[in-house]
Specification:
Blueprint lengths: L5 H6 L7 E4 L3 E5 L9 E5 L11 H22 L3 E5 L10 E6 L2 H5 L10 H11 L2
Antiparallel strand pairs: 1-2, 2-3, 3-5, 4-5
Guanosine-5'-monophosphate (5GP) binds next to strand 2.
Length: 131
């Protein structure tokens, strides 16, 4: 059997995460290397690499949770805009990036992946955003 993705291990709780939301089909948690504070990853519980290969029900559940998370970010952080991005070259398990931003530069900003995660800030953000 192929090795499980790091995100499947996060859903199972085998790897800790800063959980924001969970339902039957989806899971949302803070990106450990946020582009902006409040950067959430929304994933389907089914481990499928390409978002475009998701069965329609799972794709729709992923979009419904993405919308809920974006609304939650608006309510709690009140940013100018909330971005949705799909890239997917880092982890072979479909995921949607939802994050607050104010400027075009912030939208295109890349996180510094070599930097140690700021666990204190992530923990405080998760406590605010979780629903
Ligand atoms: P991609 O480039 O594939 O669209 O994004 C993958 C994202 O997953 C990156 O933003 C990266 O920071 C995040 N990521 C990778 N490993 C982990 C992890 O173990 N925990 C969390 N919370 N995020 C991760």
């Amino acid at each position: 059997m192929a090795k499980e993705s790091i995100f499947t291990r996060i859903i199972r709780g085998e790897i800790p995460s800063y959980k924001v939301y969970e339902d039957e089909d989806t899971f949302a948690f803070l990106d450990i290397h946020p582009k902006q504070p409040g950067h959430v990853l929304v994933i389907p519980k089914k481990e499928i690499d390409h978002i475009w290969d998701l069965p329609d029900e799972d794709y729709q559940a992923l979009m419904a949770t993405s919308k809920k998370v974006a609304q939650r970010i608006r309510e709690i952080i009140n940013p100018r805009r909330v971005a949705m991005q799909v890239e997917g070259t880092g982890v072979p398990h479909a995921h949607v990036h939802i994050f607050p931003f104010s400027t075009v530069e912030e939208f295109h900003a890349e996180a510094d992946m070599d930097r140690d995660p700021d666990h204190q800030a992530l923990s405080e953000m998760a406590a605010k955003l979780a629903f």
